[in-house]
Amino acid sequence: MSIQSWIDRWDAQQEVNLPDREERFTALIDAVAEGVGRPDPLVLDLGCGPGSLSVRLLKQLPEAIVVAADADPLLLGLGRAAYGDTIRFVEVDLAVPGWSAQLGLDRQADAAVSTTALHWLSPAALAAMYAELAKTLRPGGLLLNGDHLGESAQTAPTLLRIGRAIIEREERRRAPAGHAEDWSGWWAAVKADQELADLVAERERKQTGGGHHGSPSGLLATHVDALTAAGFAEIGTLWQRGDNRLLCAVLA
Ligand SMILES: C[S@@+](CC[C@H](N)C(=O)[O-])C[C@H]1O[C@@H](n2cnc3c(N)ncnc32)[C@H](O)[C@@H]1O
Predict the structure, then answer these.
(1) 72 CA: nearest ligand 1 atom
(2) Which of 70, 114, 206 to mutate to test the pocket of ligand 1 (most atoms within 8 A of CB)?
């Protein structure tokens, strides 16, 4: 199977839990275009996977410089093979302090973007990552994070319950027979492709992805608190559907 076909299948399985993924990409990229104030921004894609957001951003903002960061060698390998001529992919673990120095930046970034990735970090690692990001962005720089970021079961249990029920009802209407391929189906298929055997072996050697259990930073408040502590001034939701939102934070 071609690299582009694997990325297309990646996009399809991501949409299983995220039917508004393309709409959220569009809102995020519009926010970058509107918010950075120059046609050639330096943009960091945090937890880029195979580059789905980066490539769409570059299509809308062809003068942008995009540095795409992820810890998974297989997803980075797909991204490099498909888009390596226009996007620089860098292997870093965002949970390990010092990640920003590995990006090889020659100036402060105008924006950091991310989709469906930062909820993977523990709250402590997320706070450290945002603090390091604040030193990597220019004053007034933007964080734009598209993710499922929900209400707290302690402070808003009813909103949480009804919000989840709305999404589940919508999902039953949208796909009553289920989906062709989900996240685990995609990974099982990709691991069986002999042409990707080297990347699969590298991923297994580094045990990437083995630490992903649930959504340790899936609460909106975890992000708002960590961004505030890191020195971001305005923090708010620019686009939302259920708990799927585009969170924006502006560095002071
Ligand atoms: C669900 S995927 C989303 C990928 C891409 N942003 C997209 O929307 O298609 C989550 C990504 O976060 C990356 N990730 C998770 N924890 C990470 C960490 N500590 N450092 C770097 N990347 C991480 C994973 O490797 C994976 O590529």
Answers:
(1) 25
(2) 70
Residue 230 has what pLDDT?
98
Ligand 1 neighbours, Cβ below 6 Å, are 14, 47-49, 52-53, 70-72, 75, 93-95, 115-117, 120-121
What is the token pair recorded at 149? 């970021």
Looking at residue 202, which CATH number applies to its domain? 3.40.50.150
**Quick check: is 172 in a domain?**
no
Residue 197 one-letter amino acid: A
- Residue 162 belongs to a domain: no
Q: What is the pLDDT, as a whole number, of residue 110?
A: 98
> SS3 letters for 54-82?
HHHHHHHCCCCEEEEEECCHHHHHHHHHH
What single-letter amino acid sits at 107?
Answer: R
Domain that holds residue 130: 3-150+181-251
- Predicted structure pTM score: 0.96
- Number of domains observed in the structure of the chain: 1
Residue 17: the pLDDT is 84
**Which residues have a Cβ under 8 Å from the Cβ of 38 and sit 6 or more positions away?**
110
Tell me if 216 is assigned to some domain. Answer: yes
In a domain, 156, yes or no: no
Q: How far apart are the CA of 169 and the centre of ligand 1, in A?
A: 28
Give the atom of ligand 1 at the shortest distance from the alpha carbon of 95: 19
Mean pLDDT by 10 residues, the chain (252 residues): 97 92 98 98 98 98 98 98 98 98 98 98 98 98 97 92 88 85 96 97 86 83 98 97 94 97
The CA-based dihedral angle spanning residues 140, 143, 149, 155, taken in that order and rounded to the nearest 10 degrees = -30
H or E segment and range at residue 121: none
